Amino acid sequence: MLCNRTRHVIHGFSSQARRLQSTLVIAEHDNKSLSPITQNAITAAKKLGGEITVLVAGVECKPATEAIAKASGLSKILVAESEAFKGFTPESLTPLIVDLQKKSSFTHIISGASAFGKALLPRVAAKLDVSPVSDIIGVQSPDTFVRSIYAGNAIQTVTAKDPIKVITVRGTNFEADKLEGGSVPQETVPGDSFKTDLTEFISQELSKSDRPDLASANVVVSGGRGLKSGDNFKLLYDLADKLNAAVGASRAAVDAGFVPNDLQVGQTGKIVAPDLYIAVGISGAIQHLAGMKDSKTIVAINKDPEAPIFQVADYGLVADLFKAVPELTEKLK
Amino acid sequence: MARVLVGVKRVIDYAVKIRVKPDKTGVVTDGVKHSMNPFDEIAVEEAIRLKEQKVANEVIAVSCGPQQAQDVLRTALAMGADKAIHVEVSAKDYETLQPIHVSKILAKIAQNEKADLVIVGKQAIDDDCNQTAQMTAGFLDWPQATFASKIEKSDNHIVVKREIDGGLENIKCKLPAVISADLRLNEPRYATLPNIMKAKKKPLTKVTPKDLGVDTTPRIQVVSVEDPPVRQAGAIIPDVDTLITKLKEKGHVA
Questions:
Q1: What angle do CA B186, B192, B197 make, to 5 degrees?
Q2: 8 Å CB contact between B72 and B17
Q3: Among residues 6-25 of chain B, which lie with CB inside 8 Å of chain A?
Q4: Looking at the predicted structure, is the pLDDT value of residue B201 above 50?
Q5: How far from the centroid of its chain's Cα atoms is residue A45's Cα?
Q6: Contact A151/A267 with Cβ under 8 angstroms?
Q7: Could you tell me if B40 and B64 are in contact, meaning their C-beta atoms sit under 8 angstroms apart?
Q8: DSSP label at B27?
Q9: pTM, whole model, 2 decimals?
């Protein structure tokens, strides 16, 4: 229960915040290109209102900066280029962001809820002694946000009372900013002093694929335990190639070693919301549904008519996937 | 030899289909099966494996919450933790306890217990926050290794394989450090009956956030909790040809 006095204080604060609103968006990139989720985060920032500053920090900032510089409605891009940010470690980026916060007093600090944003922003929030809000799916007002809990089985609306709102944004719930129509001024920020010896980036082992990125693909074909082996995933790759689709997987398929873990769709993997999601040999556990149930059209191919996936599927085909998938691939020619 | 602190949370069992309360203040938790957050089981397992490899010499399990939080602490003890600390928070205050509070509590206990490693699950499956490890590391100024799928310790640092969006990443962290466990870090063991019996005799101490000097005033107010939009029931279609026709109608395929 919230007493009237507290309510008044909150109200007083939010109207003040609205007047002085300014948001810092932390851009995500890989030194070669901007990650698409940054465009979703910029859209969310625009919903908050107020001035928007984007921070690009890294060893090589030019590609990401050039992409963002064309966006409309942004005030400034801060560019912090330094070897200190090798591997984008939160231990080096956090003091940079805290330093910028001290200078500019942003009311909001946001980034995409990717592995990068999830690792970084809570550390920033701790340093600012504020409670962060994770993975928001909607903005109601500058201090009130919507997010999902219990693997998407409940929707929670929360009001953040701290003076600085530190937020990660679920990419699939905000349109991508087009990054066009503007010319954003850039400012260089020194970064070398943020080099840390706490953590050292060693290497990355990235899965190589010519297919679209899972998190932003228009069509996703996912396989589960029903595929029976990693080799059988070839059936899905063939179908995906026909549809220009990304390939995903359920936890069962990942745990069984059929595909690498970065293909996992679900509560603990990626959240996707493509136009078309084709679930093949996936039963539809709560944890998997959490990652895909906002897809526009869901197709399920499963031989078990009782599989929970059929409760969310727009079109369900009760069939042996080893027959139905090749037939589908063939007939889509 | 390292001292390892593991954070464990009691949550509604992952297999339970949750229900939203009619007054929209939260979800129904009374009379609902609870268990240890699955990611925390992985954290406990990893701590115990470090002990079995003689990398760690003591494993301390911590849980914040009402009396029932002791259930998951006993589970951690039965899995092999040496002692437990129950940070007692009343049922009412627990409703508004947030990762920021838990992180401050864990940070304080890590200092008091002279821990070299703090391991927690990457997220709790109830609030889905994914914040506690990062914030604990922030409060302690320790390095963080989030979403860990492999941990190797050498002299004064750990090498961690992390699950990231495009694949995997290897980092090296100085000790002391905070780790958050991802699904694929290990396969947690079951507590055997003799170990469950032994766990009852292991030390479990109680403290309060106040004892630790942590203010648990809520920073976030829950306005409402509602059911997600329900998807319209779909149709079972007879064959692949019908499926292709339907997808064409919807404009998904040319």
A1: 130
A2: no
A3: 12, 14-15, 17-18, 20
A4: yes
A5: 14
A6: yes
A7: no
A8: B
A9: 0.93
